[in-house]
Amino acid sequence: MFFSMYMNLIFIPILMLSPLMCISSNNWFSMWISLELNMLSFIPLLIFNKKFISDSLILYFLIQSFSSSIFLFSSLFFFFQLLNYKSILFIIFNKMFLFSLIMKLGIFPFHFWFIKLILSSSWMNCFIISSFQKIIPMIILFHILIHYILFFFLIIFSSLMSMILSLNLMNLRTILGFSSLNHTSWMLMSIPLNKLFWMYYMMFYSIILFTLINLFNILNLNYINQMNLMFNFYKNLIKVFIFFNFISLGGLPPLLGFLSKWLIINLSLNFFLYLQIFLLIMCSLVFLYIYILMFINMIMFNFSINFSISMNFFIWKKFINLNFYKFIFMFLSTNLFFFIIFIF
């Protein structure tokens, strides 16, 4: 226990300072060093997690090492300026450079290692993977020549895949993992357009995610059905606090999560990216549906327990079959969509 705390005091400051090193770097080699410091400082945090699965650690190390090798190999040509930016080789190495960063971010089509790592990590490590580990690759993306068609294709498909794979899940880590892929797509959307908006989105997302994960860690929650039981024993204030953090993460106005999305929407429409932002909004509405449905099912679960003595089972079954919660979601999502159209 003491040794684990001692190791945290050493490696967490390195983990937090490595993005500052990348920001202050003026060449590719020093950016690569900051990437490696970030990875090497995070591995001990995974090792000293008692519940961590070694297979996930090996997979994480192999993916990060392979992507770092591609990054270093490609950056050497940029560092020594060996290629003309119009040549075919420059385009190839630029694509390799981009895919090495996409691999480190863990978005489509390299999302498999990210979800597996989330599943086997502690809650606080999940927060680090979903926030601090993404900062340096995104900072580097500011400095490269981006092929916009390919870049937006990866963003949209990452958001669509996270939306599809997040349906009918029970594990809270997996839900937040796919939610992180969706939010990463929103952040990547702002990178070619405005650095300041990317910083705002990352900051707001990290605040909401840290609040949720800290609550899950304190309450020892891992699955949705555990939240059903939690709603019976904890005070209403905690229930409301978790609910509002979830719908803020989903982007329901006028909460903080919507403000970050609203900034990206406004920015994208100024650059006439109508289709891209429409697809991102639709994917975010599905995540909002998942969050609201999760909590309405909890309310139904507790309502059925409290009134099971006085209510007939068949009447209750007919009441559930009305699916009125779906109409509530349709009302909320429609209002969100038309609210966005009305503003712009």
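Next protein, fold it too.
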Amino acid sequence: LPPAFFTMTPDEVKREQQLRTERVESSLVLRTKAMREKEEQREMKKYRFALIRVRFPDGILLQGTFGVYEKLSEVFTFVQEHIVFPEGEFVLTTGTGLRLTEADMNKTLLELHLVPASILLFVWAGETPSEDYYLKPEVMLQLQSL
């Protein structure tokens, strides 16, 4: 990951401090659901990148960094470019079991609450290829231990 991923600008630090102060103040006040949702949206806007990891059934993780306003379709394209059987149909699900469907493709990663980082689970949806591995050989050569 680039160093910019981990560094915050002075404006972001000030905004973070302001948000923490507001959070303490708001915890002392009863709020409606709409107020809580608005605050949650404000909290999520501080991120510029989303770290998405896709876990394959063999335990290997494919990692990509995306902008928070990129669409879910970009994640699917990223996965498709790296798997050994790109024309195969697959499904990605969240760790909570939420299945990401065709209806979610035009939603941003921010809207899907995949920010700042998420692990998605990969499953073949249709015909399963005969290979025992999921990623292309050139991708497997770049494999690193976590």
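About the second fold: The chain has a mean pLDDT of 87.
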